[in-house]
Amino acid sequence: MKNYSITFLIKSDTVNLDHYTIKDIPGSSGRLDVISRCILSALLNENGFDNNSQIWVYFKNYKNLQFDPHKLNYEGFPKTELLLSDYIVNLLKSRENCENKPYENSIDSIGEGDSSILETLRYINRKKKRNLYVLKETGSPFSKAIEELTSISDLYFIIGNQCEDFINSEAFLNLNIPELSLGTKSYLASQVVRLVKLNIQKIL
Length: 204
Description:
The chain is an alpha/beta fold and 204 residues long. Helix content is 35%, strand content 22%. The longest helix has 16 residues, at 81-96.
């Protein structure tokens, strides 16, 4: 199989941890559960970590996080939506409170940064012109892009159904990022991640 790397980019303007409680993650976190499911779908497969896939998460009110399986400890990684959500909450709160000591947990290393998703996309678009795509229902059929995708080793996919206002903004549209669709059926964001991985694995 050809060597390749898939990076998913997901943006959330709704996550707010001011009233977070583990008893009601969806309602008290601004749907952090959606983000956690996408992270798990991107990082895990039936054999453990999927070393061909990573995910970058951009929050409106918090630092962005980059989950790269090569830098994580699989044994200690929280593999359920509940455990991962609670870990992310503690991590983000520790950063928000400017604690000198990183939040101690069994995960080795999660990247973080201050760049906005727009800044990241502009950088990728300049450096890697042909391998950045946005996933949305109205895009071109994914199947028709197979020939192009097989010639690319580093692939970046923006999960469009999680940030519709952003991908319809003038600033985003000016980037002229190609749009791909997995079909007219509506999928959950985590399902989109899994389907992309499955399709890429089939063609590569």
